């Protein structure tokens, strides 16, 4: 049984989840493949837009890029575990863990994944794909927030006021 089938079998019929944008998964997959292809080709083969690598030494880029990648992995792992670990008997707004700091930690992890790779090799071509990915993720996030508002009303409005969409606050309100 493949990973996709396992995930689908485990999560089908989850009425405790609010839903996603209909093109969200496909768009994310296309952008991930595009980013990977552009980043790998420009970083390791073509090197057309990696001129900034001469200005920022590798000993600065590697530790910084690794920190960003670790944060991305943490947000993805904990966010996905919170959402999909168990079915909630009473559906509601998730406010625990990373969801208490940002409203879209899983999408933020995707942005940080691309950013971490970008820090490792400062490919301007890959930066263009990153900007497209940020725009797309923001678009589908706004759509999904409308679904959440329709489902949870005032509770989700309050959550939107209390928790930032993308950039965590240094101190909680």
Describe the structure.
Helices cover 65% and strands 0% of the residues. The protein has one domain (25-162). The chain is mostly helical and 173 residues long. The chain is built from six helices and no strands.
The number of strands is: 0
User: What would you call the structural class?
Assistant: mainly alpha
Q: Number of helix segments?
A: 6
- Mean pLDDT, all residues: 87
Radius of gyration: 18 Å
- The rough form would be described as elongated
The run of helices and strands is HHHHHH
How many structural units, i.e. domains? 1
Poorly predicted runs are 1-11
> In terms of quaternary structure, what is this?
single chain
Distance between the termini: 46 Å
- Fraction of residues in H or I helices: 55-70%
Major pleated sheet: none
What proportion of the residues form beta strands (DSSP E)?
Answer: under 5%
Summarize this entry quickly.
The chain has 173 residues and is an all-alpha fold.
List the helices and strands and how they pair.
Blueprint: H1 3-11, H2 24-46, H3 58-84, H4 105-120, H5 124-152, H6 154-162
Helix pairs in contact: 2-5, 3-4, 4-5, 5-6
Defining traits:
173 residues, mainly alpha, 6 helices, disordered N terminus
